[in-house]
Amino acid sequence: MQLVIILIITGAVAGTLGGLLGIGGGIILMPVLRFVVGLSPAEAAGTCILAVFFTTLGGSFRHYRLRHINVKSILPVIVAGIASTVVFSVFFTSLANKPIWLDLGTGLVFLIVSVRMVIEGLAEIPVSKPADRLDDEIHGSMPAKLAVGGFAGILPGLLGIGTGAILVPAFTFILRAPVKIAIGSSLACFCVNALLSSGFKILQGYAVISVALPLCIGTLIGSNVGASINKRFPAPMLKVMFGMTFLYVSFKYISLFFGVKL
What we know:
Elements: H1 2-21, H2 26-36, H3 41-65, H4 71-96, H5 99-123, H6 142-152, H7 154-159, H8 164-174, H9 179-204, H10 209-228, H11 235-257
Helix pairs in contact: 1-2, 1-3, 1-10, 2-3, 3-9, 3-10, 4-6, 4-9, 5-11, 6-8, 8-9
C-alpha cells in the first residue's frame, strides 16, 4: 500500500511538471521506477511510457481547451512521429537485451534535458514570439515539420522516454511558435507517440501494469493541474530546481555503464 501511495504521488508530480512545461514527466518517473521500485531498464522504459501517455493525454486535453493546440497545423509532425515511433519500437526488443546500453542512453538524454533546463532557467532565455501574436497555428515548412516529428519519435520508441524537452524548443526555435502554443502542441504530438510506444511495450511484455496503474492515476490528475496553472506559474525557478536535481540522476544512470554506483 505504501508503494502504491508513493507511485500515485510520483505520478502526480510528474504530471504537473509535464502539463506545466510541456514534457512527458519521464525525467521523474524513470528514476523512481529504476532505482526505487527496482524494475529492470526495459521494464522501467515500458512502464514509464505508459504512464507518460496519460500525462500527455490529460495535458493535451487541457491545452486544447485553452486554445493552445491547432491539430491541422501539427498534423505533419504527428504523422512523421508515428512512423518514427513504430520503427524504433520494433528495435526496442534488441536494446532491451542490452540493459547497460539502455541505462547509458537514458542517462545521456537526461543529461541533455537537465543542462537545458538549468541554462534556460538561469538565463530566462526568451523562447516565444512577441506577445501580440495570439493565433494557435504552428507555422513552418512541411520538411521542417516532418523532420521535427521524425526525430521526436525516436526516443519514445527506442528508450521509452519522452521528447517534450526536445519538441518544445523545436517548436519555438525552428517553427517559431509562442511558448504556450509550443507546450500544448508538444503534448499533443507526444501523446500519439506515447500511445504507440506503450502499445508496443505492452505487447512486448515490458510494461508492468500493476506499477503503471497508480502512476497513471497520478499523472492524469497532475497533468490537468499543470496545464491549468501554466499561464500563472513562473517556470524559470522550477526549471533550475529540477534541472540541478536531474543532473545528478543523469550521472547516476551513466555511472551504471561504468560499473559505479552513485
